[in-house]
Amino acid sequence: MSISNESTSNKSISNKSILEDLSKDTVIFISGTPCTGKTTVANDLNGYLSDNGFDSKLIKINDFAFENDLVIGEDPDKFYKVIDIDGLNECLNDEIDKSSNRVLIVEGHLSHLCEGADKMIVLRLNPSILKNRLEERNYSESKIQENLEAEALAVCSAEAYEIYGDKTNEIDASDKSVEEIRDFIISIAADKMECPVGSIDFMKWLLE
Predict the structure, then answer these.
(1) 47 confidence band (pLDDT: 50, 70, 90)
(2) Do 30 and 199 meet the contact criterion of CB atoms below 8 Å apart?
């Protein structure tokens, strides 16, 4: 079942019956442009599942990369750490192999470049909202512009689709609460709905 990414105010997609359809052996990746809400949503999802009887574990991909000594340098122009993606993919899949009979949530901007997810979730955000969040986090002007253009062009979604195809789902977080986004993810993971890539279009922002 496909569903629109329109606002679901005052309506919860997920409920206890949906949880009954969620496999206790599921791997969910959550990615997206920086500041789209990945960490907040992943923390809420992990806590909600744990509170409802699931053995749920959250891996934050950046921390995971540091813990496994996968930083191989620093970009001299953009001042961010360069991660060994092949090594990250290998270590992550070793962790997935050891995490049977539990819900494993992998959160972070690099997660969509790795294999192993049963469902690949990409959080999207209207660039006008994203701009404010990036500014609040004190991103440089060049990084703000880079991330806004990446979001408008759906770069994360396109990269995720290359690996995951129809397992990739986009959720427009622009007008949804954390709980609503969480419920979308649960319903997608339980195969009760789909939010296919291409259903969200922020390209007009580039023309403004």
Answers:
(1) very high
(2) no
**What letter represents residue 67's amino acid?**
E
SS3 33: coil
Q: State how beta strands 168-172 and 71-74 pair.
A: unpaired
Q: At CB < 8 A and 24+ separation, what contacts does 75-79 make?
A: 78/142, 78/143, 78/146
Dihedral sign, Cα of residue 100, residue 103, residue 190, residue 36: negative
Q: Which fold is adopted by the domain 20-207?
A: Rossmann fold (3.40.50)
The b-or-e profile of 3-42 (16+ CB within 10 A means b, else e) is bebeebeeeebbeeebbeebeeebbbbbbbbbbbbbeebb
pLDDT band (50, 70, 90) for residue 163: very high
- Residue 189 backbone dihedrals phi, psi, to 5 degrees: -65, -30
pTM exceeding 0.70: yes
CB count within 10 Å of CB 84 equals: 16
